[in-house]
């Protein structure tokens, strides 16, 4: 890998649901130690972009490269083993396993990161999970399930996390805890693509912002650029 090579490179990615052409040439880079916020209106294709990168919706055409190696067309588990973790929009826990067992399901050595995540680190982010270690995940609140999903992914020691609307439907205090967690995993060297509907959170935790519209990236800028750009907000983000 060349020094200036992005960790993840996506070029002219197209994807369909049946006959519906949803991704229409998505190109983006994720460099080491970036948190890229992927924002846009509902239906603009943000979740589909993450699914296509992850191989959950096989792309119709285009390139996805992880550290210069093509992963487009690979199976989701291969992409996961290569170091990309995916936290879907819908809570994704093993309902009949305890919190502890769910976390153990996520444990993987990773592929050469300097930082190795521990249970204690997870419980420091979310003390509530520690209190509920022996509780069945299915009986947790939505917020607790979201925390658990993030922690289970982190314990796989990924290079990249793709996180889809982690704060949706959460109480303000939990939203803040999730935002703090994302800032800290960034500090520890994990790169993140974050789909986040709450603009204030997206701008607070990201280092760069991509705006999606009509199945492609229509704008790229810093969080400050976006905050100051009323026209952009009106054209691509206002409902
Ligand atoms: N499983 C699906 N089958 C058919 N169409 C879908 C499916 N999921 C999403 N879509 C459509 O694809 C478009 C993009 O959806 P999505 O990527 O979920 O948008 P976003 O996450 O930005 O809200 C929308 O028009 C949506 O209705
Ligand atoms: Mg979505």
Query: What separation lies between the terminal Cα atoms?
Result: 41 Å
Helix content: 25-40%
Mean pLDDT: 94
Percent range for β-strand residues: 25-35%
Chemical compounds bound to the protein: adenosine-5'-diphosphate, magnesium ion
Compact overview of the structure:
With 239 residues, the chain is α/β, with parallel strands linked by helices. 35% of the residues lie in helices and 26% in strands. The strands form two sheets. It has a six-stranded mixed β-sheet, with helices on both faces. Strands 2-1-4-5 form a four-stranded antiparallel β-sheet, with helices on one face.
Protein described:
With 239 residues, this protein is α/β, with parallel strands linked by helices. It has a single domain (32-53, 81-237), classed as Rossmann fold, CATH 3.40.50. The chain contains ten helices and ten strands. The protein has helices spanning 46-54, 76-81, 99-106, 119-125, 127-131, 142-154, 172-187, 199-205, 223-227, 230-237; strands at residues 8-17, 20-30, 35-40, 61-66, 69-70, 84-87, 160-164, 191-195, 208-213, 216-221. The strands form two sheets. The protein has a six-stranded mixed beta sheet with strand order 6-7-8-3-9-10, sandwiched between helices. Strands 2-1-4-5 form a four-stranded antiparallel beta sheet, covered by helices on one side. A hairpin with a 2-residue loop joins strand 1 and strand 2 (20-30). The termini are far apart. The mean pLDDT is 94. The structure holds adenosine-5'-diphosphate and magnesium ion (MG). The site of magnesium ion has 3 residues, from helix 1. Keywords: Amino-acid transport, ATP-binding, Cell membrane, Membrane, Nucleotide-binding, Transport.
């Amino acid at each position: 890998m060349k020094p200036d090579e992005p960790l993840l490179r996506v070029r002219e990615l197209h994807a369909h649901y049946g006959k519906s052409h949803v991704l229409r040439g998505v190109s983006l880079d994720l460099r080491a130690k970036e948190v890229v916020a992927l924002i846009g209106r509902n239906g603009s294709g943000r979740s589909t972009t993450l699914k296509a990168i992850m191989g959950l919706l096989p792309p119709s055409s285009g390139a996805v490269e992880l550290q210069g190696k093509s992963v487009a067309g690979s199976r989701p588990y291969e992409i996961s083993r290569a170091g990309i973790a995916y936290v879907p929009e819908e809570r994704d826990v093993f309902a009949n396993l305890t919190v502890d067992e769910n976390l153990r399901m996520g444990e993987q050595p990773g592929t050469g990161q300097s930082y190795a995540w521990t249970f204690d680190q997870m419980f420091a982010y979310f003390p509530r999970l520690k209190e509920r270690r022996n509780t069945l995940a299915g009986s947790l609140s939505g917020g607790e399930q979201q925390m658990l999903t993030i922690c289970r992914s982190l314990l796989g020691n990924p290079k990249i996390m793709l996180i889809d609307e982690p704060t949706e439907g959460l109480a303000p205090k939990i939203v803040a805890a999730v935002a703090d967690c994302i800032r800290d995993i960034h500090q520890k060297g994990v790169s993140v693509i974050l789909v986040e509907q709450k603009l204030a959170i997206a701008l607070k935790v990201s280092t760069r912002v991509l705006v999606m519209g009509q199945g492609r990236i229509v704008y790229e800028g810093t969080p400050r650029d976006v905050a100051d750009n009323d026209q952009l907000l009106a054209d691509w983000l206002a409902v």
